[in-house]
Amino acid sequence: MTSTSSFPSASGSIAITGGYVVPVVGDPIDGGTVLVERGVISAVGADVAIPEGIPTIDASGRWVLPGFVEAHGHVGIHEEANGVAGDDTNEMTAPNTAQVRAIDAIDIDDEGFRDALSGGITSIVVKPGSGNPIGGQTVAIKTWGGRTIDEQLISDSVSVKSALGENPKRVYGAKNMTPSTRLGVASVIRQAFADARHYLDQRAAAAAKGEPFKRDIQLETLGRVLEGELAWDQHTHRHDDIATALRLADEFGYRLVVNHGTEGHKLADVLAERGVPVIFGPMFTSRSKVELRDRAITNLVALAAAGVRVAITTDAPVVPINFLVHQASFAVKDGLPREVALEALTVNPASILRLDDRIGSLAPGLDGDVVVWSGDPLDVNSRAEEVVIAGRSVYRWDAAAHRGRVVERLERFAG
Fold first, then answer.
1. Closest Cα to residue 234, out of 130, 369, 306, 390?
2. 415: pLDDT confidence band, cut at 50, 70 and 90?
3. Is the pLDDT of residue 1 over 80?
4. What is the bridge-based pairing of β-strands 56-58 and 14-21?
5. How far apart are CA 362 and CA 45, in angstroms?
6. Distance CA 151, CA 143 (A)
7. pLDDT of residue 5
8. In what order do the strands lie in the sheet with 139-142?
9. Which of 16, 281, 362, 395 is the most buried (most CB within 10 A)?
10. Which helix H or strand E contains 304, and what residues bound it?
11. What residue ranges do the domains of the chain occupy?
């Protein structure tokens, strides 16, 4: 079932004035204004008339950007500091669990969401983990604003998470069951899509004859991937696994998004030619397994230089989600163009997962998610000083107290 939300219950109106506005898509505006009305951006420019009664934030001397987008995280389903009780990341009772949904396991009171606000992140695509060849459905949500996760929903029709490589090998090899090898992992995915294609054919035949048809939510989900509605989020690190991901995508014709892509630089020209994007990272980790032997921030630089559309991920909580911007800063230090770094935090993740009609830049008609930074966010000394989601201020840095203040849960709908 497809579901999207316009986030109406938490929307408000506000004007952010006098700042150095960086829309990301479009030229910066010094002394610009971003006007949000009823949760949606209505104007961005140097001379914006502010309707009477709309509250304002004076951003003079500060930078104003769209809220950042974390394109691959586990916030809310792998909770901070809650141990086993807070870990609903992987349903590993079967190699194929395409039918499970991340939205059904998210705790909106996870501390990771508060951390996200402090890092200027207003949207996140929450994904199941990488223990299964096919892990389940992802969901795009706002990082604050609702009493329930449904009230923070952007879209639950984003993608399905899949994994190649060592993780599913380790999980199911330990159980002495398929898949215990790379060829076994690929075979699970291949058979699942063959079954889904047959399911779609049977469903169409039944509909043509007006006959009843028994619904299978697992095959139905994979059918949505085959029909192009959902992307295929492929966890993969090594270049040979990326080649397998391309091979499977060619065979079944689905929309492939490489996640992690540690050795993607070795196939950068191929990925660019095929228009396959990469959600790269996490970047602040050790080489904890063989697949990460060639981990380097410069690999991201090489991907972007080849023309691959890239986004940056923390894989939170693997790396604290508020460090998303610092990963971009270090990439710039290693040669990533500044404009690409900002795009990799905003419009690129939104575009890769087809959310750019809602989030990722500052433009009329998009969600009123705006962050006021003390300075250039790629400067490690800058901080997110005020975060606005859907036209409501939800986070503010308190300089006197040396801490960020978040609108607490019971106050989210006040006013």
1. 130
2. very low
3. no
4. parallel
5. 10
6. 11
7. 64
8. 68-73, 121-126, 139-142, 153-155
9. 281
10. helix 297-305
11. 68-355
